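Sample entry (251 residues):
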Amino acid sequence: MKPKVIALPEVSFSEFDGVRHLHLGTEWVQGSMRIGAPFELELEYVQRMMAWLLFAPEGMVPGGHAMQLGLGAGALTKFCYKQLGMTCTAIELNPQVLAVCEGWFKLPPQGPRLRVVLADAAREIRGDEWIGTVDALQVDLYDHEAAAPVLDSAEFYADCRRLLTDGACMTVNLFGRAASFERSLARMAEAFGTRALWSFKPTREGNTVVLAQRTPTRPKRALLEARAQEIETRWHLPATKWLRTFKPLER
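Predicted structure, serialized as tokens:
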């Protein structure tokens, strides 16, 4: 029997008001880059995907390992690589996405600290080489219709959890106004436990970032505020604003 051939969408980009947008065969924006600031995070939900910094153990960030499932426009990979000084692995199914990121979205050349693996994420993350090696996992896996996550089972989230070091976190982009949102939370809770989950309120566009801790903690409010201030000072992310809409699912 011949293997099933997956039809991948055509990748294109558009520009408006100094911002370049990635598209996968539709008008839906799959990633963005401000042309004058290619290593900053343009979209609000993408900034929130960095909320794991609130829980990062002392000294973990520079030299740590960040993994992105879904390259998109390369924003998270570039930020973790350039701004945070981390080793980065991105897993992307569509080779056109990689080519466009390299040609038009300022993705740095691959080397010892930056690797893009062209593979199916569900299969790739089961590889022994990744287990227990990831300090920050960022999951943003949508198809060209951007209707629901492509990978969203309890088994998939359990595989994600196995990637993480003890103090690590996973952040996931979901659509908070979609009917699938509660199902996604339930599957994540099955893999991580409800106490491990934190969630933002939806952005204006409806993106809801959910964070799952490998080891659940409840930092005091004062500590979170201090960490948020440090994140703003060091990396210019709106972390103090995050705390207004970022809560644990289980008190």
